[in-house]
Amino acid sequence: MAEREPHYAGAALDTLPPRPRHAIHAVADNVRSAYNVGSFFRTADACAIECLHLCGMSAHPPHVKLAKTALGAFDYVPWKYYERTKDCIAGLREAGIPVIGIEVSERAVDMDAFTWPEPVAVIFGNEVNGISDNNLARCDHVVQIPMHGYKNSMNVATAFGVVLYHIITAWKTTR
Questions:
Q1: Segments in 13-127 forming alpha helices (H)
Q2: 0.85 exceeded by the pTM?
Q3: Hey, which of 8, 30, 34, 114 would disulfide with 65, CB 3.0 to 4.6 Å?
C-alpha cells in the first residue's frame, strides 16, 4: 500500500516542503458569497493552483465568513485582490495567459471538447448573473460544464472544483 502524505494542518507555511503548482489562474468575478470564496480557497489549495484572483465584491482575507469555510487555506494559496475584474484580465493577458470564461453561453464550448492551454486563466462569475457581459467579451474562449438535468448551472464553488480537476486531468492525459 502506498504511503500517505503527511497532514499539514496548522503548520506554518515556511516550515512546509515546497509543492509544484499547476499553471492555473482562477478568477472570481464578483462572487458574492464569502462561503463560496472560502470553498474556492480550499479547492485551490487541493489543486495547488498558481494564483486565485479575487475581484470586485468577492470576499478576500481577512473576512470572518471566508475564514470559516477556507479553514486557513488562504495561508497556502497565492492570491490577489482587484477592485475591477477587467484590470485582472488585462494583467493576465499581458502575461500571455489565455483567459477562459466558465459560463453557459451561446459561444460556449463543452469542456470535454476543449483543449486547455497551459498556462490558463479561468473566470467564474457571480452566483446569480454569471460573468458580466463586459468581462465575458474579454475572454479568449468560453467553456461550459455539460448539464444533464433540468437546470443549466450548478453552485459556483462546485463548478470551480469540477473545472479545476478537469483541467489537471486533461493536462495529465496530453503529456
A1: 34-46, 64-70, 85-94
A2: yes
A3: 34
